[in-house]
Amino acid sequence: RAKAFETDWQYMMNKLITIVGLMFVAVWIVPLLRRLDLVSVFNYLEMRFHPAIRMIGSALCMAMHVGGRMSVVLFLPALAIATITGIDVVISILIMGVCTIVYTAMGGMRAVVWTDFVQVIVLMGGALFAIFFIFHALGSEAIFATAEAFDKTKLVNLSFDLTQPTVWGFLFLILFDVVLTFPKDQVLMQRTLATDSPKAAGRSIWMFAAIMLPGGLIFYGIGTVLFAYYKANPERLDPLLPIDATFPLFISAELPAGLTGLIIAGIFAAAMGTLSGTINSIATLLSVDFYAKLTRNRTEQQTKRFAEWMTVVVGLVGIGLALLLSRLNIHSLLDLTIEMAGLLGGGFA
């Protein structure tokens, strides 16, 4: 949303190319991993190369998700809640973080799956209503005219400047990040490997790809219609707010109170659903790739207890990093996420 509001739709190309990469993953990668019957996807690296490679890969994955994903996923909704309700960012981070830790530790993978399901319904519903609200307020002609005048729906960038969101940069990214190293994402693969059949596993990847396109259109669309709305009503926009707070400002100032509550619930659901999946997956990696490998004479109950405690520890680390982000002056959290993913995950291929 924020990136589309500030610039255009060029980052949307990333999703379109990712869908192509996911087709390859569904056909070739998932069946391979299913045949190997893995809990941690990094066990493949031990089978193929060496136990040390497995542990290095697993550690990089944990650093990427905890440092480059959890912190942002906690901080961004907290910023939204603070803009909408006035609740302090620190308090919002603590509420979301602690609640997620509790239900993830108690409910495990089943809790993760069901919260993700609720997250999609609530968040998409609130986003669609916001788009319809702006179309009703401005009219489609005014929105399309503004988008065309400021080139807000530019999608394809064929420049060879790889510091920009170009098609070539995204193709390179998808080749190495999706096709070659998609299994490094334990968060996504754990959902896939937890299915009850190879056909269901492949179907989960196809479903992920199918949701990605309409989801991207909806959220990039919000950025575009928001730009048109504030171009028509510039006095309603606080120029001192960071761009990531633009949509929360619109929710709090423009939408009916009842709907505001629904979208706040959607923001919480989205953040907590993503967090729970990440926490559960990282706790699994710590348990399977490190505790199980480095300890002897352990019981199944001890391994399970270790994973539960790691759920708490990982969640607390994520909360701490989110609190650190809240003290920094960050222009765009999307850019920060991409930079952190490249820094911590770029060595996988």
Question: Approximately how much beta-strand content do the residues carry?
Answer: under 5%
By secondary-structure content and strand pairing, the structural class works out as mainly alpha
Q: How many E-type strands?
A: 0
Distance between the amino and carboxyl termini: 30 Å
Q: What is the H/E string?
A: HHHHHHHHHHHHH
Overall pLDDT level:
79
Work out the helix count. 13
Q: What ranges have pLDDT less than 50 throughout 5 or more consecutive residues?
A: none
Helicity range: over 70%
The shape is globular
Return Rg in Å: 21 Å
Any overview of this molecule?
40% of the residues are buried. With 349 residues, this protein is mainly alpha-helical. The protein contains 13 helices and no strands. The model has no long low-confidence stretch (mean pLDDT 79). The chain is 78% helix and 0% strand.
Secondary structure: elements and pairs:
Elements: H1 2-6, H2 12-36, H3 43-48, H4 51-85, H5 89-138, H6 140-149, H7 167-179, H8 186-193, H9 198-232, H10 246-254, H11 257-294, H12 300-325, H13 333-345
Helix pairs in contact: 2-7, 2-9, 4-5, 4-10, 4-11, 4-12, 4-13, 5-9, 5-11, 5-12, 6-9, 8-11, 11-12
